[in-house]
Amino acid sequence: MRKLVYYVAVTLDGYIAGPNGEYDFYPICDDMAAAMSARYPEAVPTAFREHVGIPVDTPNKEWDTVIMGRGAYEPARSQGIVSPYSHLTQYIVSRTLAPVDDPQVRIVDTDPVELVRTLKAEEGMDIWLCGGGNIAGQLVDEIDRLVLKSYPVLAGDGIPALSGNFVPTRFDVTAREEFSNGTQVTWLDRRP
What we know:
The protein is an alpha/beta fold. It has a single domain (4-190), classed as Dihydrofolate Reductase, subunit A (3-Layer(aba) Sandwich), CATH 3.40.430.10. Helix content is 18%, strand content 30%. It has an 8-stranded mixed beta sheet.
């Protein structure tokens, strides 16, 4: 069965972005960018692949599908990019967006839990939950793996990594790596 993997950057105080969706405050470093792009080339938007040395036709390694909320989709959309990850099947969960004319992008205005359960039952690679915190909160019971890029930054306010009901859920750390900018990437699997 396919797994839902929440791969996301997060501050020390649990935010994935600032109050207005800002994310440019995360300290970038070459060793982390190279390592994460090599491991997850599919997480690099199609339009930026060549700029970071990844050929556009690089095969996906972990995921063939991405799910995101409107907030995670909006930065690309505001730049006129309808299909930010054209190398993936993209599901945008939104009750306000109209359908788009692109076979790789599907706007979903129904229950995201049912969507994920349907996708998990299909053949394919794992599913990347790109964000944001609202959709992650709705899908907390379906998240099988977390890949948290924990940056050494306090935001003070912003979009939480997960919002919703109080549902303590145990995960086990399976790996951790630290980079030159102080960021730790931690891989965690849902405890059985």
